Amino acid sequence: MPEEREILRAENFVVGYGASPVVRGVQLRSNAGELTAIVGPNGAGKSTLMKGIIGILTPSEGRVWLKGEDITGQPPEKLIRRGVAYVPQTTNTFPSLTVLENLELGGYIKRSQVRRRVDEVCAMFPDLRSALKRQAKTLSGGQRMMLALARGLIVEPSVLLLDEPTAGLAPRMVDTVWSHILQIRDSGVAVLVVEQNTRRSLADADWGYVLTAGANNLEGPGPELLANEDLVRLYIGGTAGQPSPPERETGSQDHVARTAPEPTQEG
After folding, report:
1. Which of 39, 168, 183, 256 could pair covalently with 235 via S-S, beta carbons 3.0-4.6 A apart?
2. Domain boundaries, the chain
3. Residue 90 near residue 165 (C-beta atoms within 8 A)
């Protein structure tokens, strides 16, 4: 992966829960205007890696750099101010608050610019503009994910971390949410995503990392990884280079193979 546009880098990263490391020596980079996908079997440590990068979990070894500055172990509230946004799979909005209140709260570090940013994110997510006075809990699953993405973008991040952004969504909403993610990438933001639909994420990824047992296994341009017969056979299913079967309503189609038990903390 080219380094000239590097925004985020992790090296020899070790993180887990208590004395039990889940992620063991991972290395990755994410560049401006690129989609970087992290894939692998359930239990590979993908979500744990994201939590370690954003400071929810404290790494025991390794470093993380943001635009060349060491940010290892800094708490989420500091990383937000430095341009790192994180959208978790669950609890990513405040259900009892209105859409507008969610956006304003997301932009608390840029209070003087919140009105401008609300207008800008509503231009990207038109469904939100007509729902600004509605409580978040009244939105559909897809609309709530759009709100979560908008909350992440309202601080104008240089890198956006997404953990399973399409999990549980109906197929038509999966397509809508994913198109917004590509739009965010095309705006120049570095997007680092853990996505349950491995075939979709690698097809669109500028760079992909395959994790197994908490460690790097393979990496390369997403479409090239999809052309790897062994990778497809072990972690995706079907035939390399072929489109995935239609997704079920839960949006769970194309999960990578369960080759290891899922730790309860992994998410």
Report:
1. 256
2. 89-156
3. no
